[in-house]
Specification:
Elements: H1 4-16, H2 21-24, H3 65-68, H4 72-100, H5 103-116, H6 118-127, H7 131-146, H8 155-158, H9 169-175, E1 183-184, E2 192-193, H10 194-204, H11 209-212, H12 215-231, H13 234-243, H14 247-264
Antiparallel strand pairs: 1-2
């Protein structure tokens, strides 16, 4: 059983690890969910893939938005704080990082951090009954960790293995029928719902680095991952900021619809 100090350390890492661009949307590929946003701030994301006529997006009816965002005044203040953090700290660091670090090295870091996330994706694939996905995760990890120089080279992807959908505990809870709860934005953290916040905490326990690396090393790795991911998405966020009038609503709507679609898949 981890000691009390160990638990405090892991929770601190969670807080430090969320300093990503635009309230953390760059983290774990979430920048992609902003691409379909149109200029008036409405979400142009595709409808969920499920053919079930009873399946509805949480934002199909604008009147339902309040049910998913009852803490909107607080969330908007936290979103503004995170956006300011990105503007004055993360983005300048990412811009400098991109200038001095060659693209192959940045790509290798992304591959390595993705490889380290295998336990989270593997366990949640099993919990969701996606045995084939769990097998791909385990096989890809073994290949990339050995032939791929510790994960710096994503050989599994180059060989055409179909990647998983990035399963996490929040998604697993949704598959099990647990509702999302209110939308929530916290300082230094990515956007989430209450359900996904619980899942985020559980996922941190599936991070193998947290069990072997000291706090400073773990925090440094997370900061590097955040800056490196932001550097790889500079143009994406610039395009979004120029085209979206209500960025807070666009991020919230895109996040909620993306999470529902991931659960239905």
């Amino acid at each position: 059983m981890p000691s009390r100090s160990t638990w405090k350390t892991r929770w601190a890492v969670l807080l430090l690890g969320g300093a990503a661009a635009l309230a953390g949307c760059a983290t774990h590929g979430r920048a992609a969910e902003l691409r379909p946003v149109v200029a008036d701030g409405a979400s142009a994301l595709p409808a969920p893939a499920s053919a079930d006529a009873t399946a509805r997006s949480p934002l199909d009816d604008p009147a339902e938005v309040g049910d998913y965002d009852p803490w909107e005044p607080f969330n908007e203040r936290m979103f503004a704080f995170n956006r300011g953090l990105d503007r004055w700290v993360v983005k300048p660091a990412a811009t400098g990082w991109r200038k001095v670090v060659p693209e192959p090295f940045r790509e290798g870091l992304q591959n390595a951090f993705h490889n380290l996330g295998m336990p989270r994706r593997f366990v949640n694939s099993l919990l969701q009954g996606k045995l084939a996905g769990a097998g791909r995760e385990l096989g890809g990890f073994l290949v990339n960790s050995t032939l791929g120089l510790g994960g710096l080279v994503n050989i599994a992807q180059r060989e055409g293995w179909t990647p998983s959908n990035g399963e996490d505990t929040g998604q697993t809870l949704g598959v099990w029928g647990i509702g999302p709860g209110p939308y929530l934005v916290l300082p230094f953290m990515p956007p989430m719902t209450v359900r996904d916040g619980v899942g985020f905490a559980v996922d941190s326990l599936l991070n193998p680095v947290g069990y072997v690396a000291p706090f400073a090393a773990n925090a440094g790795m997370k900061a590097t991952d955040t800056v490196n991911t932001r550097a790889e998405n500079l143009e994406v966020f610039e395009d979004v900021e120029e085209s979206v009038l209500d960025l807070y609503s666009a991020v919230r709507n895109g996040y909620l619809q993306r999470r529902q679609k991931a659960i239905e898949e």
